[in-house]
Amino acid sequence: MANGKNGKNGKKPGNGSDKSRVSRSDYQARVEQLQVELNQLARWLQHTGKRLLVLIEGRDTAGKGGVISAITDALAPRWCRAVALSKPSERETTQWYFQRYVTHLPAAGEIVLFDRSWYNRAGVEAVMGYCTPEQTASFLRQVPVFEQLLVDDGLLLFKYWLCVDQALQEERFAERLSDPLKRWKLSPVDLQARARYQAYGEARDRMLQATHTPHAPWTLVDFNDQRRGRLTLIRHLLDQLPDTALPEPQMEFPMLPGKPRRERFAGPLRPIRSVA
Amino acid sequence: MANGKNGKNGKKPGNGSDKSRVSRSDYQARVEQLQVELNQLARWLQHTGKRLLVLIEGRDTAGKGGVISAITDALAPRWCRAVALSKPSERETTQWYFQRYVTHLPAAGEIVLFDRSWYNRAGVEAVMGYCTPEQTASFLRQVPVFEQLLVDDGLLLFKYWLCVDQALQEERFAERLSDPLKRWKLSPVDLQARARYQAYGEARDRMLQATHTPHAPWTLVDFNDQRRGRLTLIRHLLDQLPDTALPEPQMEFPMLPGKPRRERFAGPLRPIRSVA
Amino acid sequence: MANGKNGKNGKKPGNGSDKSRVSRSDYQARVEQLQVELNQLARWLQHTGKRLLVLIEGRDTAGKGGVISAITDALAPRWCRAVALSKPSERETTQWYFQRYVTHLPAAGEIVLFDRSWYNRAGVEAVMGYCTPEQTASFLRQVPVFEQLLVDDGLLLFKYWLCVDQALQEERFAERLSDPLKRWKLSPVDLQARARYQAYGEARDRMLQATHTPHAPWTLVDFNDQRRGRLTLIRHLLDQLPDTALPEPQMEFPMLPGKPRRERFAGPLRPIRSVA
Amino acid sequence: MANGKNGKNGKKPGNGSDKSRVSRSDYQARVEQLQVELNQLARWLQHTGKRLLVLIEGRDTAGKGGVISAITDALAPRWCRAVALSKPSERETTQWYFQRYVTHLPAAGEIVLFDRSWYNRAGVEAVMGYCTPEQTASFLRQVPVFEQLLVDDGLLLFKYWLCVDQALQEERFAERLSDPLKRWKLSPVDLQARARYQAYGEARDRMLQATHTPHAPWTLVDFNDQRRGRLTLIRHLLDQLPDTALPEPQMEFPMLPGKPRRERFAGPLRPIRSVA
């Protein structure tokens, strides 16, 4: 897990735009290769009973949902699930902060991807004033201890921050606003957040400083080109874990006993007319 | 809801293969138009507080997951969710059969899509012998009464059966077997089911006869061409519901106060090197 | 289940006060005998896998909690539990009315006692205006159908209404008000309900008329003397079910290998000083 | 919280039997006084939004259930609840050990009493071989850190160990075996545990040594006389918390408008005949 070191020697922020974007077809071919490896990883987790938790954090529009789908689409739902908690209920806000997240930690053989996570308290909640500065400070003290407990328990924990420059963020906000199929992704809070780009950056810096620990390091990934970002993140994740190839269960696929049948109905009901 | 009638005069099973397949690009353009209408529907549900439940049933490989994704991808997760229950626990198998499904019924403004549903008891459970014939018979007696309760309560309930000929099913099974990214979709039970295509058809006929009621009719949709099937099913669903267009909430999108910023980090941590 | 008939020929309301009250010691001896039979019943339920649901309804102070405790105190928590739902959340109020109750229906071998039940909608909700008259009317139409589904499914369902005259109710309210250990049982709603004794009675009459069905009859029990009420209700419940005596599992209780030991501590910590 | 110190200077184990037993009537009077104070405590918790968690541990028959009932009986269920987790499911056994306990931690204003707790892993699980020695060792390392997180978060945490000599334990086992109303409290595991009295004691010593911390100290209470034990434990708990008396909400109790009414029924249904 040479993440911290790689990170230090890694590319400068914003450099992503210097490279040409990954094309859709190139992306498709490369992501499928990674998805094959993800399946191998999933079989290894089930074989060993290990548990994998991946936290995906980053600014609005950074591409959290996209990379999570790229992973979950390739895997059986019984092995891998995404968790995106909605606003806590009033009662939940008075509980131990980690309580509602703990409920969703993986069991043996499972992959859980958190789309935003407990780090909300250091990000949106801090910047938008949904919690007090004392609550954020207390959270930043608790996190390394809490994560140590999980890691000591054998949980495989990875934390990714998806980086995006404001120019790209603005493009994506504009697209969400104009595309009727993406508009639901926009909330008034998102729009308020636009003007606070810098405040979010400062909150993130405080968070990284307090919670980038040897036992649970952060990995930053450039998502100015979302396709390249996804390929980079998944490649990195796979590289942290053994690539033990386990044989797939063989399944018999004998010849059908007769001619394939058509879907026929004994009763009066028939398929409706298909669209032209 | 002229479903029953349309159905009777509708196309014959298997005719789907007479038409040329819908191309990917044609599909993309047409499904997006439907997705815009689905957003309109979602706003109408929220405005009126109505609840929508859609049961998606059909043979293995028919395309249940695909049409559900086509709907959920376009809608905010807080408005619309898919429910695919896994095998009941031992304790659950002794409870009222509908109990674990009732938990997931929609609240005001919500769309719930059941990927398989209580009809398991008349399909896979009956054919594979996971329940007794008495249990299936009892289930078929209870269903119309249970669904009447829901509909009387104001729930909007739609039940779709996705039709697929065995030749197509075989093609898709073979594809799942050979494609490492689709292999997780195959279970030994699926393969056992291949040879029982006819038994499944007979079970389905009994189910349709017992549960195609005026208050909760079935709609059969040809999914031999899955893209056409999806377009047909979503078009049909939209046609059953008012197309009241409600104005979208207007959102302010003011100019940024200054030049867009880049993602910069105060500490030593930097994004890792992107893949080439 | 000759309940309806017995009921008609039964004692007049309020007659309970003609008899002398059951003394504490008499009660204790008699309830323990019933509790032994309840254990026998519980073993029979586990042996047969049957499920038992008992709804306990009645006015405030009637003694619902007391009779429920008399039953649960005698039985292992894994066999028997009481369910007292608190106020529904806002989201729950928009769901199918029975939804949150269905969650708590018993599994094989279990006894569930509902301390108030779905009948809230015909009682307190109707009288206090927490639901519309249409909602109550709709509820009263749905109940017999819903209960038929449960009974047809093999659930053993019993519904008890605990009767109390207003003079006794007033006494008990006054006691709750004056006893600091009972004051938490009083809510402002209870006190508002005092003046609506008659309205509650009328609501109950409409409820009985609509929901006293052959498959799920009501049983009224005089609780003017709470001890006698408890004995009567439990006796009645036991009489509706077979009194099949199943042998208890034999447990070995061999001699201890040596002299009994004292609780000793290796470390410095010792028990605190006991109160005098 | 002078627990540790008091403990050291406290009474010797087993001394409880030197005092005469607390009589039932004496107990009743004294516990009611404590229950009044518990109500005061509950109001203080609600007023301040603080959360109280009490772990009740001890050998079989020590009296855990009894002291928990003495507390919960006096308090509204919405303020105070007992949690007794049953055996973990197979999936739960592979999760983070604390996961299923965290779910039940109190929210603002709540009292939660754990009837056995996470300390199972250092007690019954260790002695009976339900977990590996490594799992117990890992648990004992995690506990102080985990409890520190909770306490730092403001949770009021108290841990009680109920002491009972083996002679008393044997008496109580014998009583459970002979009393048909108590037999359900006996499981085969309990009987196996009899012969391991000393092994349990050693496991408890290791547990105390590893987890008696300044932020979450243990308190040992002699339960050889269960009534005296209950009075001692509740008195101790109350003494650790402020005895701020908050005024009870005043409730109006106006005269009834007319003569108290009797429970009358419009329909044919009447109360059943009461037992003699």
Indicate the multimeric state: homotetramer
Helix- and strand-based class of chain A?
A: alpha/beta
Q: For this structure, what is the CATH homologous superfamily of chain A?
A: P-loop containing nucleotide triphosphate hydrolases
Q: What fraction, in percent, of the residue positions of chain A are helical?
A: 40-55%
Low-confidence stretches of chain A: 1-17
Summarize the main sheet of chain A.
5 strands, parallel
Total strand count of chain A, please? 5
Q: Cα-atom Rg of chain A, whole angstroms? A: 22 Å
What coarse outline of chain A follows from CA principal-axis ratios? globular
- List the total number of helices of chain A: 10
Q: Kindly report the greatest chain-chain contact and the residue count on each side.
A: C-D, 91 and 90 residues
At the first level of CATH, the class of chain A is Alpha Beta
Q: Report the sheet-strand fraction of chain A.
A: 5-15%
For the terminal residues of chain A, how far apart are their CA atoms?
Answer: 55 Å
The SSE string of chain A, one letter per element, is HHEHEHEHHEHHHEH
Tally of structural domains of chain A? 1
CATH architecture of chain A: 3-Layer(aba) Sandwich
Spatial ordering of strands, largest sheet of chain A: 2-3-1-4-5
Average pLDDT metric of chain A: 90
